[in-house]
Amino acid sequence: MPKDGIGASTKRREDLRFLTGKGRYTDDINIRGQAYAHFIRSDVAHGRIVSIDTAAAEAMPGVLRIFTAADFAGVGGLPCGWQVTDRHGKPMLEPKHPVLADGKVRHVGDPIAAVVAETYEQARDAAEAVVIEIEELPAVVDMKAALQPGSPLVHDEIGSNLCYDWGFVEENRAAVDEAFARAAHVTTLDLVNNRLVANPMEPRVAVGDFEAHNDQHTLYTTSQNPHVIRLLMGAFVLGIPEHKLRVVAPDVGGGFGSKIYHYAEEAFVTFAAKQLKRPVKWTSSRSEAFMSDAHGRDHVTRIELALDADNNFTALRCLTHANMGAYLSTFAPCIPTWLHGTLLAGNYRTPLIYTNVKAVFTNTVPVDAYRGAGRPEATFQLERVVDKAARELGVDPVELRRQNFIRPDQFPYQTPVAVVYDTGNYHATMDKLLEISDYAGFAARAAESQARGKLRGFGVAHYIEACGIAPSNLVGQLGARAGLYESATVRVNATGSITVMTGSHSHGQGHETTFAQVVAEMIGCDASQVEIVHGDTANTPMGMGTYGSRSLAVGGSALVKATNKIINKAKKIAAHLLEAAPEDIELKDGKFTVAGTDKSKSWVDITLAAYVPHNYPLAEMEPGLEETAFYDPSNFTYPSGAYGCEVEVDPETGKVTILSFTAADDFGNIVNPMIVEGQVQGGLAQGIGQALLESAAYDESGQLLTGSFMDYAMPRADDVPFFQVDHSSCTPCTHNPLGVKGCGEAGAIGSPPAVVNAVIDALHRAGMTHVTHIDMPLTPSRVWAAMNA
Amino acid sequence: MTEVSFSLNGTPVHLRDVAPTRTLLDWLREERGLTGTKEGCNEGDCGACTVMVTDARGTRALNACILFLPQLQGAAVRTVEGLAAPDGTPHPVQQALVDHHGSQCGFCTPGIVVSLAVAHAAGRQDHDDVLAGNLCRCTGYAPIVRAAQAACAAPVPDWMREAPPAVGRRIFTENSSFWQPESGDELAALYDAHPGATLVAGATDAGLWVTKGLRDLAPVIFLNRVADLQRIELQGEHLRIGAGVTIAELRAALAPRFPALDELWRRYASEQVRAAATIGGNIANGSPIGDGPPVLIALGARLHLRRGDARREIALEDFFLAYRRQDRAPGEFVEAVTIPASAPNCRAYKLSKRFDQDISAVCGAFDVRLEADGRVAAVRLAYGGMAGTPRRAPAAEAALLGQPWGLPAILAARAALAHDFTPMTDLRASAAYRLTAAGNLLIRWHHDLARLPVHVRGVQA
Lengths: 789, 461
Prior knowledge:
The complex is a heterodimer of chains A (789) and B (461).
Chain A: H1 15-19, E1 35-41, E2 47-53, H2 55-58, E3 63-67, E4 104-105, E5 111-117, H3 120-127, E6 131-136, H4 143-146, E7 162-168, H5 173-182, E8 185-193, E9 196-197, E10 205-211, E11 216-221, H6 226-238, E12 245-248, H7 264-276, E13 280-283, H8 286-292, E14 295-296, E15 299-307, E16 313-325, E17 353-361, H9 375-393, H10 397-404, E18 413-414, E19 420-421, H11 426-436, H12 442-451, E20 455-464, H13 472-477, E21 486-492, E22 498-502, H14 511-523, E23 530-533, H15 551-578, E24 585-588, E25 591-594, E26 600-602, H16 603-611, E27 626-631, E28 640-649, E29 656-666, H17 673-692, E30 723-726, H18 746-765, H19 780-787
Parallel strand pairs in A: 1-13, 11-12, 16-17, 22-23, 29-30
Antiparallel strand pairs in A: 1-5, 2-4, 2-6, 3-5, 7-17, 8-15, 9-14, 10-11, 10-13, 15-16, 18-19, 20-28, 21-22, 21-27, 24-25, 25-26, 28-29
Helix pairs in contact in A: 9-18, 14-15, 15-16, 17-18
Chain B: E1 4-8, E2 11-15, H1 24-31, E3 50-55, E4 58-63, E5 76-78, H2 92-99, H3 109-121, H4 127-130, H5 142-151, E6 178-179, H6 184-193, E7 198-200, H7 206-211, E8 220-222, E9 232-235, E10 238-242, H8 247-254, H9 262-266, H10 271-276, H11 279-284, H12 292-298, E11 302-307, E12 310-315, H13 316-319, E13 320-322, E14 325-326, E15 333-340, E16 347-351, E17 362-370, E18 376-384, E19 391-392, H14 394-400, H15 407-420, H16 431-449
Parallel strand pairs in B: 1-5, 6-8, 7-8
Antiparallel strand pairs in B: 1-2, 3-4, 3-5, 9-10, 10-15, 11-12, 11-15, 13-14, 16-17, 17-18, 18-19
Helix pairs in contact in B: 2-3, 2-5, 14-15, 15-16
């Protein structure tokens, strides 16, 4: 095995450029002659645009043009990539989403007009001279209020704020109700999954360029999926065919979901560049990011668990209101439905499950996927209600989980919510967690805390997620308006080095390192001989990009397929040169040998022969050594894990301190343990941020109250503990060639319920059994208020 | 003359016709093409733009997004591009970040690298404090902290020790868009002649007037080269703190005398902001939620103001007239503040959602002097976040004065706070919370002086 093959904690090749300031991010790209765009955004949550007077502003220095909705009359709106059908068989309500607000503004931050000028400062100055008259309308922020008769309508033309009323599995509804009627015990919990802002450190940027001589558009953008942007923007918004549109997403400074979507600013700069015959650049300020990047979560849920007299789960019922915000972001409708409802079995054998999701329009920023997307919401409610049930029944929360876990011998396991888990061993991850977190020693530690006047608690959560999205034919049936395969081209160069073009996109995940490890392992070459190219539609095959922990499971599988094609062809060339049968050729450590002989050819002998085909079976094979493969998965992958959190609560102030956090995950096979650990730690920090600090807050009039890093509390270094992570409990995925499951979101999924369970545990141990739930974030004031209620 | 001279990654830079509020970040990225330094927020919160600045005051990590070019006169600036050895050998911090997987998306990384390199040069081991001004959304910080720990053992590379360049004295004209006086006298004359000018010290707030408020501050008088305002002097039983002393310098100077107040200064914004912000700016700016004034008021600080040759001295609390309105005449500036050289009973407490780099919901600072019989001879209770200005609590003070020091008197003072303040409700806290917490801080103070366990880390709200 090469030293940087599969399983090695290879140091990242990306790092040196990032650490020396040589990364090339979108805002680092400047095109000669570029002009600058500045968006004028609504400062009210809901209003009718009465007039826009640009005359004075247009006369200001440096102004090239001011655009309003009228300029986009001949252009499509921003499309939604997923259509959900409601429980009555009707398609969701799908309001228009114009590039610039047309007639009405619907949230604070909704773009109304855009000024393009010679300099950024001139654009901003001119924006202040644009006179916009808005007749302010009553805004609706609360989801349940939005569904009341007489509520203000976010979109008048669709007649309702209810986007869809989804039931799953609708046919099970009566059976679930019946199971609840028969239950020996029912646990009910009302909870909120708090609205979050992804806040990648790099704000969004878009640069549009147009070359008149060949009618070619280029968009440089901060995207997790440049091909998807090319498809959506080209086909649905601007009407530009793919061969005339190139989308480049260079180094991207984090995404966490928020850079999946096609945003208005991307379409704007592409459109304006052609109109003005100038490159046009837009760079989001952090303030704009807070009010224009899609937000995440924001579910209000009632979850109910039915148990029989032996504490077996017999049914689960979930009623969720999911906030869509003012418009449908690209994949918004699928988050509370297919990425949420299908995970409600969790790790348990619950036989009957019914979910009802009401998706609601409000005068807030659109909500879409954020790290985990639907699965954190499912895990949170499930792991909270199981914990609550254990307390009500007076049984150990760990034991109640164990009793109801799907057993290792039951895989593949068909859940009642459509999906089939291929592998897993939840007892093993739970055991591992208890072992490495020293659960046995908890009582002594709790006594020590008590002696100091502090309340110590331990909380567990066991999660499952569906990653590697997804079989295209399946998601097509579920409403996806895209396929979800992935692609790779492996180009072996004449002198043996290898260039890989992948449709996946790396924005922190380290693909340039791990994908090279996979190829190095298969070929037996040094990883340094493999270059990974991504992020440019001009030189990579059509790909669906990176989100949902899919890159290695789907993109890596495409890479394996393409590399296998390379190996097969290389063996044929070797067979020709060695005068042997192809099936007798073995490839090991970068050398082709005829089995059982000492006859061999080096890797370079073969690659040279492919490109200098003097001695080559030209009648049977084409020269060259380049292969492309597309991989469409046959199932999701199902990473799972047990998370444990130990906290101390200050009874005087309600302040929660995390003393330790332990994660025992099953990610299947692992290519680079160092990077996997990094992904888990980063996910945990975001999950702990959600649990203790973060919340996007609106006031009643729809003003965003948390619009800067001073108001939206992201964790800083001393807010986050050192974590213990383990991934030794491994059940490889059975249906992809690498046996991998995905690890990018796990930390953010499993940690919020573990933290909340730990705090509730601490309070219960101190006798405060009246506290059955506290909504996140668990700020000292909320914990204190709950303790003193 | 609007020239600025400094060195950038070891190379001399001489700029002409510098706009006074051109930020270092924009200049680096737009004019020098040095795009390693990143803009993550443009308001000094995220640290992605952190650069290393060495001048007569030492080496500091500063936020380039709110650092105006004239502030660099005579400084040596090093960006992320200038941290590796000339032969390309990575700085020990860079290597440690590779070894410990301290970078994922790479966007915050340049700022993290510079923050850690500056701390490494100073031998710092308080890594969480060093990083309090750097947000990272990918790594969860632990790998970065491990890298910082690992790098501690490596010697400071030679190329990190550089002397600031020698610069000549510049001559400014009447029509300059900025001036940069080098003494208090020069400043007094200039400001008297140009009372409409904007005084800029550390620019940690004035920077945002430009980057967020889009204001034109010109003409500007930069205070960072007024050396005689940057001293801390012991004068008998008082410390005279020049207005140009940074919070970091103040913290270092006060730590041995007021160890109990160090927590407050540690939580004052972040490393980068403390290294730039001055105590004079913090006072003159008059924010109702600045963390400096309450503690200074509790200490009985006297404020020294100067206009031309005229000087006057007032109690600090009398300086704050109303929300964002201070007792400062046109052309008058804060010269210094004096505080007692010791105050063993003074304590200060800050309540905020997050420990580091967060705006106070309430900040309370208290001092008391007791008679021999244990009665309260003098007391000063000062609060930030409770009104439109930092203010004392006269009713609560009256409730304590003359009473035997103890919990009953403290509880009476707590009850009296309702007569002193009608706080507002906002995102950070409700009025009721503020009033309750402000009162409870008095109890904490009592317990603190009684040596019961109260650590400021326990009182985050």
